[in-house]
Structures are given as structure tokens and as C-alpha cells.
TrEMBL record:
GO biological process annotation, one example: glycosaminoglycan metabolic process
Active site: residue positions: 344 (proton donor)
Entry-linked PANTHER family: BETA-HEXOSAMINIDASE (PTHR22600), BETA-N-ACETYLHEXOSAMINIDASE (PTHR22600:SF57)
Record-given protein name: beta-N-acetylhexosaminidase
Entry similarity comment: Belongs to the glycosyl hydrolase 20 family.
Residues covered by the Beta-hexosaminidase bacterial type N-terminal domain: 33-162
Species annotation: Pedobacter soli
Single GO cellular component term: membrane
Keywords: Glycosidase, Hydrolase, Signal
């Protein structure tokens, strides 16, 4: 390394240690575009002009981390930046890595902007990558779309010194209840990387499907356990599984973006696909129906959401099976952790089986909690034997004294569960239902968004932003918090647009609280920065929640009669592509409910789609029966010049005093490239 670079590194080492001690006002170096908020920003006079001819220089260790940024520039602008190894250059964009920059940690960075250069310093490649995403956010939002490659962009001069609070900044995607393919997950990782989220937890198995190829057990990816049965009338893209080659592709893609993928195989409960394909592993002989189906159909089959069978914790074949599964997972995923689930196990099924009771007596296990601990210990040993660390949902803490300390806890039951894990000396990831389950509504239970309304809480943007994972912990206990994670369960949120609306902009709030110290949070400042980033999401073709959700109209008592009569709403602005349409009738007040018998989509006055069934706009918001007030239509021949109306035939039930919201949402067929106009 040249002497000049060494001097630059030395200066950075000194300034970085000071930079973390104080935060300057941003001045001209605007913070209102960067999420998560950097730790320290100071403004200088002048500006750096980013041109198509601007050269990029890098040290060898920085080459791979900057490759994604360079590709992003080329993809949006057509600019093929001139890149070469850094020697003694002092102008352009310079990327430098040094093991001496300990104050920056494993993911921190420093960016110095002068009129002639942007100099980036980090201890690791991860820090360099994070810096590139900050530079990306300093550029105009147009960089996220297709722009003129001849543009000149200005970045105000100054210095940013930054590093994260937590090493685990996660998002969990349930791909079992609804499957999402490789391209969807890549797009999600692109957005995660932009906001410095670094853990993608894939919930690969549940009662609704097994979603990963295991070569030793090929039946796991049979039709009956990966494809929703034809009787369920589910779109084809909601079923499927990842081949091992696709998993390797996703892992490579993630690594290039400083993201670790954590795989989850949920056992011993939530294992319906396994007991269908390998019935000898079940605790009983119940295997009806002999196929997988959407979560909402569970009540019609089983009377509740839980399966009538689990893996048998007394059966050695179960442990042999899981050893084989985890062997292949350990080879596919370089992550330190493998998640084994462990949640919501129906112990009553074990209590009913004489052979289980005999096993418990033989092993001196007093109750089924101790039997589950026995199972968890066996699974933890298997996972550790693969060179991995086990992690499970906090249900496994029910017998904490017998749980090996190497097992980490993912705490979903709130502050108490998180504190329970930390106080017992277990590393934990905070992911409480309230407020970090993003399948739960974020503003209004009557706004038509595809939220899980069985939960009474509202996980608002403000609630997410103000969440503090270390509540009630002292400094020693707080050291056991690995980080925070938002979860997206896809029982109800099935279409990609609906999922995006549930996740954004809350995922940006999660990114900020995972990155910055609590004392640096500023909700008003976050809202200001969010405004600019919503424009970014528009260009990235990501739908997000807007006030009012999917509400597109109202009905009042004046419009309701005692006999069926039509009500119509103009939905032209909400109809913008071919796709699936969900129209909803959410009763909000009044002495009477409303009955609906037919809904039609009119294109220039002519019906082009309809759903005819009797529905009731009532108070029901749970998941244990069909919401008849939702109507589903398919538009296949969209005409951008046409006028669209939604017409419904309705009447009052035992009276006409009924008020409510009419909701309308179109999920486009081209789900990756088309969004609703703002």
C-alpha cells in the first residue's frame, strides 16, 4: 500500500474514534434521504459532482463489495463506471479497507466527501458495502429508475461516520403458507440491502407446505406437499419449492449484498407435510386430508388452525430423518445458525398416546414440557454436530433449566419472553408479535388490507419505530440481545402487492431501530426522510401502505334499502392492469348489517368480471371462518382508456341503518414490475 493511503488511513483512525463521540448537525450534507440514520454527520462547504466519467478506484478487498453498487449504476443509468485498483489516486471515488479501523466495527464505515473525491474507509467488506448503499441514498431518487446516463449529480461535501447497533437486523419471510419464488426473494434482498438489513430468515416448512429440496428424502417435495390441492382454487404461483441449485443461487445473491440467509425447518409441530410423506414419523395415524391446503381452510378440516399430528419425539427414526435434513441444510447455508422452530406444539396429542406416556416414564420425564426439552436437546445436538448454532422460537424455553445455553431464542411473545431469555443467559432475537409481526394491521382494521385481523393490536409505523428490545434489561442482560427482526406470516397476505403494502414502510422503521442507538431516534426526522424514500420505493416498483389503505368509498344508511338495489363506485384510478381484484365491504357502525349478493366490475358500462355469492358485511374479523364480505374478480383485458365501476347488489338486514367502507384492491399479474400509481 502506498504511503499516501497509509496517511489517509491513520487520519481516519483518529477521526473515527472522535466521530462516534459527537454528532454534528447535518447542515448542507442532508440527512433527509438516508435510512437508517447515520451515527455521525458533519457538513463542509462545496459539493462533489458525480459524472458518467467519474472513476472508481478500490483496494483488492473492496472489489467484491462494490460490484453490486457498480451494477446498480449501470442498470439504472447505463453508466459503465471506469474501475481500477487504487494506487496513489486522489480524485474520483476511492474505496479502502484496513484492519486497523477497529472503531468502525465489522459493518461500520466512514465516507469523506470533498469537491474532488469521495473517500470510503471500512474495516471489512461488509462496511464497504454498507457505505455504497449510503452513497446510493445520497444520490437523487431517480437513480432507482431508468435515468439519462449523461446526468451530473451533486453530493454536498462532508463526512459520515457510521456503524450499527445490532449485528442481527432481520426480516422473516414465511414461504410455506404461501410460496414466493426466487425472483421475489431477490427483489426483497435488493431492498433489504439498501436499508442495511442483513438477515433473511426463511420459514421453509409449515403445515401448508415443504419448500426446499432434500435429496435424501425426495418425497418431501412431492406434489401433495408442495402444491395446494386443486380443490382450493389457488393461483399456481402460491405453490412450489426451491431446488438446491436455487437455494445456492439465493445464498450467493445474499452474500453479495451483506445478507445472511437463516433457514428454518419447523419441528416437531407444524410438520404436516412430513407426516404425509413419511407417515412412520408421525406420533399418530391421522393424515386427513392427504394433501396441503391454505391456512384459512384449516378450520373446515380440523376445527382449528393446528394439525392433528406432530413428529413423534419418542421415535429414533425422527432423529435420523432430521439428521439427514440438517446435514443438507448445513451444506447449503453458510449461516452460523439453523432455526428448528419448536413453536405451538400440541402437547395434548402426546398426552393421548400410550407409547409416548410409556417413553416419558422410562426417561423419568414428568410432563410434556420436559418431553419437548428432550426433543430440543436432541435436535440442538444434531445441529451443533453440523458446525452450526441452533435457534428456536421462545416456546422452547418452557423448560429453560434443561436447555443447552448454545441454543439461541427467537422471542415472539413480547418483552417478558425476551427478558426471560436474556435473564437465563440465552442469546435472543427480539421479534415480538406486538409490534413486529407485519401481517398484523398497521392503521385501520376496516381498511381492506390483507391483514391478520385475529389480532386485536395495531402495529403502527410509530409503534414499530418506538419499539425498544432492551426494555427491562440491565447492561449485562442486554448483551444477550443479538438484534431485532420483523416477521411476515403469509396465511392471509398472499399476493405480492398485499405483502408489500403490509411490509412497507414499516420495514424501513425496523431497519432504523436495528441500526441506531435508541437515544438517536427521532420520529419526526424519520418521517421527513421517509418521504424521500417513498419516492425510491415507487421507482423500485414496491407498493406500500398509504393512509386509508384500500378504502375506495363508503356506504351510508341513506343508500341502503330493505330490498336488493345496486350501489356503484368509480374505480378507474384503482384499476391499472390485468390482475386479481378483491372488493370488500367492511361494516363500521349502525344497528344493521348489510347483505351483498353479487359484485360486478364494469368496463365502460359492460360487466367484464363478477363474483356472485351471498355475503354479509358484519363485525367478524377473525380467521376461523370465511369472510363472506370479500369478493374476488379477475380482470384479463385491461383497457387504459376505459372507465371502470364496481357495482354491488345490496340490502339491509332487519333494517337499513348500516355504515361502512367499500374497499378495492387490484393485484397486478405482472407483480414485479407494476405498481399502483400514487
Amino acid at each position: 500500500m502506498k504511503t499516501k493511503i497509509l496517511k489517509m488511513m491513520l487520519a481516519l483512525t483518529l477521526s473515527a474514534s472522535i466521530g462516534f463521540a459527537q454528532t454534528s448537525e447535518p447542515g448542507n450534507l442532508s440527512l433527509n434521504s438516508i435510512i437508517p440514520k447515520p451515527l455521525s454527520v458533519s457538513a463542509h462547504t462545496g459539493k462533489f459532482e458525480f459524472k458518467p466519467t467519474t472513476p472508481i478506484y478500490y483496494q483488492p478487498r473492496a472489489q467484491a463489495p462494490i460490484s453490486v453498487f457498480i451494477a446498480q449504476l449501470a442498470g439504472s443509468t447505463g453508466i459503465k463506471a471506469k474501475t481500477s485498483l487504487l494506487t496513489n489516486q486522489s480524485q474520483g471515488i476511492l474505496f479502502m479497507v484496513s484492519d486497523t479501523l477497529n472503531s468502525l466495527g465489522e459493518e461500520g464505515y466512514c465516507i469523506r466527501i470533498t469537491p474532488t473525491a469521495i473517500s470510503v474507509y471500512a474495516k471489512t467488506g461488509a462496511g464497504i458495502f454498507n457505505a455504497t448503499q449510503t452513497i446510493r441514498q445520497l444520490l437523487p431518487v431517480q437513480i432507482e429508475g431508468k435515468t439519462n446516463g449523461n446526468s451530473v449529480w451533486s453530493i454536498p461535501c462532508g463526512e459520515i461516520t457510521d456503524k450499527p447497533r445490532y449485528s442481527w437486523r432481520g426480516y422473516m419471510q414465511d414461504v410455506s403458507r404461501t410460496f414466493y419464488g426466487v425472483e421475489v426473494m431477490k427483489k426483497y434482498m435488493d431492498v433489504m440491502a439498501l436499508y442495511k438489513l442483513n438477515v433473511l430468515h426463511l420459514h421453509l416448512t409449515d403445515d401448508q407446505g415443504w419448500r426446499i429440496e432434500i435429496k435424501k428424502y425426495p418425497l418431501l417435495t412431492s406434489t401433495k406437499t408442495t402444491l395446494f390441492d386443486k380443490s382450493t382454487n389457488q393461483p399456481a404461483e402460491r405453490s412450489g419449492f426451491y431446488t438446491q441449485e436455487q437455494i445456492r443461487e439465493l445464498v450467493r445473491y445474499a452474500a453479495q449484498r451483506n445478507i445472511t440467509i437463516i433457514p428454518e425447518i419447523d419441528v416437531p409441530g407444524h410438520s404436516w407435510p412430513t407426516v404425509l410423506d413419511y407417515p412412520e414419523l408421525g406420533v399418530n395415524q391421522n393424515r386427513k386430508p392427504d394433501y396441503v391446503f391454505p391456512f384459512l381452510d384449516s378450520w373446515s378440516h380440523w376445527g382449528n388452525q393446528f394439525t392433528p399430528n406432530t413428529l413423534d419425539p419418542t421415535n429414533e427414526k425422527v432423529y435420523e430423518f432430521l439428521d439427514g435434513v440438517f446435514t443438507e441444510l448445513a451444506d447449503l447455508f453458510p449461516s452460523a445458525y439453523i432455526h428448528f422452530g419448536g413453536d405451538e406444539v400440541r402437547h395434548v396429542l402426546w398426552e393421548k398416546e400410550p407409547h409416548v406416556q410409556a417413553f416419558m416414564k422410562e426417561k423419568s420425564l414428568k410432563n410434556t414440557n420436559e418431553l419437548q426439552s428432550y426433543f430440543v436437546q436432541r435436535i440442538s445436538t444434531i445441529i451443533k454436530g453440523k458446525g452450526k448454532k441452533p435457534i428456536g422460537w421462545n416456546d422452547i424455553l418452557s423448560d429453560a433449566k434443561n436447555l443447552t445455553k448454545e441454543t439461541a431464542i427467537m422471542s415472539w411473545l413480547g418483552d417478558e419472553a425476551i427478558a426471560d431469555a436474556a435473564k437465563n443467559g440465552f442469546y435472543a432475537v427480539a421479534t415480538p408479535t406486538d409490534p413486529l409481526y407485519f401481517d398484523i394491521t398497521q392503521a385501520d382494521r376496516n381498511d381492506g388490507t390483507m391483514s391478520d385481523l385475529a389480532y386485536g393490536n395495531i402495529n403502527s409505523l410509530e409503534k414499530v419505530y418506538n419499539y425498544e428490545p432492551e426494555t427491562g434489561l440491565n447492561k449485562d442482560e442486554a448483551k444477550f440481545i443479538l438484534g431485532v427482526q420483523a416477521n411476515q406470516w403469509t396465511a392471509i397476505t398472499q399476493d405480492l402487492k398485499d405483502m408489500n403494502v403490509q411490509n412497507f414502510p414499516r420495514l424501513l422503521a425496523l431497519a432504523e431501530i436495528a441500526w441506531i442507538p435508541k437515544g438517536n431516534r427521532d420520529l419526526d426526522g424519520f418521517r421527513e426522510r421517509l418521504t424521500n424514500n417513498l419516492k425510491r420505493l415507487d421507482l423500485l416498483k414496491i407498493d406500500y401502505y398509504k393512509p386509508g389503505g384500500y378504502i375506495s368509498g363508503k356506504w351510508t344508511a341513506k343508500e341502503i334499502g330493505s330490498e336488493y338495489q345496486p350501489l356503484s363506485w368509480d374505480v378507474t384510478k384503482k384499476t391499472y392492469a390485468n390482475g386479481r381484484i378483491t372488493a370488500g365491504f367492511f361494516y363500521t357502525s349502525g344497528a344493521n348489517f348489510m347483505e351483498i349478493r353479487k359484485v360486478e366490475l364494469l368496463q365502460d358500462g359492460k360487466a367484464v368480471a363478477q363474483d356472485e355469492h351471498v355475503g354479509i358485511a358484519d363485525k367478524f374479523r377473525g380467521t376461523n371462518k370465511v369472510k363472506t364480505f370479500l369478493y374476488h374478480l379477475q380482470l384479463n383485458r385491461y383497457n387504459p382508456k376505459a372507465k371502470y365501476e364496481l357495482r354491488a347488489e345490496v340490502k339491509g338486514i332487519k333494517g337499513t341503518e348500516s355504515y361502512g367502507n367499500f374497499t378495492y384492491n387490484l393485484s397486478p399479474a405482472d407483480r414485479l414490475n407494476v405498481v399502483e400509481s400514487k
